[in-house]
Amino acid sequence: MKFRSLFYDSSINLRSISQKRLFISILLGILSAFIIYSFFFVLSESFRVISMSFDGEPNIISKENRLYYNLFFASLSVVFGNSITFNFLFSRPERVVHRFNSKRKRLLNDNIFLSFNFSYWFAKLGLSFGIFFMCCLEFEFLPYFKEFSFLLIVVLYLESFKSFSFFLKNFQRLKFMLAHVLLISFLSFGLSQIDVVNYKAVDKAMLRNNPIMDLPFSTFYDQKGQNHRYPWIKVKLCSDRAGRPIFFSDKVEYTYDELPSFIIKECSYLREELIAFTTIEIEADKESNIYNIKLFEEILSNMNIGRVVYSIKTNDTLFGKYERRGIKKRILPFNLVLNDSLTNLPPSLPSSYDDWVDDRIKDTLFISVGNTIRVNNKIIERKDLKNQLKKYYSPHTLFLYQYNKNSTYQDYIDVYGVHVEVVDNLRRLKQVVFEGSFYYYSKAYLDVHLKLKLEYPLIIGEEFK
Question: Are residues 130 and 250 in the same domain?
Answer without folding.
Answer: no
